[in-house]
Amino acid sequence: MKVYKQPDLNAPRYRPKKLNVLSQETFRNFLQKNPKYRSLTYQEYKKIVCAINQKLWETVIDNRDGVELPEHLGYLFIGTCKRKVTDNTDYQKSSIYGVKVQRQNWESDQYVAKIFYTNFEVKYRFKFHHMWGFTGVRDFKR
């Protein structure tokens, strides 16, 4: 067993900048493209988008083949992968026992579930398809 070295909790942290898709600017652009929804408020708009996202990730979890995104943007599905070969340290137990303790994935036979996004096999190609990416919301990642 290796000796566990406590991390410096007061060290400077790196936090990536968050991109908020549900901004006022996005809402204004939506209203310009769809003038029939002028009576919609920003709060209602956010609730609708969040509800659609929730339905989307629930469907991806329930349906093994995943789901095709609207406007032919691609596919979302959950796949299994082998767990990573590098150390998967359990920091809480390591700090308690003073030695490096590894997390074991016994419940899923050493496999990890990952969220995959692809637009490779889409029926209709769209401009700059190779530049699109996907980042799941917190609830979906959980």
Descriptive keywords:
142 residues, alpha+beta, three-stranded antiparallel beta sheet, 30% helix
What does this structure look like?
The chain is of the alpha+beta class. It has helices at 24-33, 42-62, 91-97, 138-141; strands at residues 67-68, 75-82, 111-118. It has a three-stranded antiparallel β-sheet with strand order 1-2-3.
Q: State the shape.
A: extended
The portion of residues forming beta strands comes to 5-15%
Helix content: 25-40%
**Major sheet: arrangement of strands:** 1-2-3
How many strand elements? 3
Question: How many helices?
Answer: 4
Query: Element order, helices and strands?
Result: HHEEHEH
Describe the main β-sheet briefly: 3 strands, antiparallel
What is the structural class?
alpha+beta
Poorly predicted spans: none
Rg over C-alpha atoms, rounded to the nearest angstrom: 21 Å
Mean pLDDT: 80
The CA-CA distance between the termini, in Å, is: 31 Å
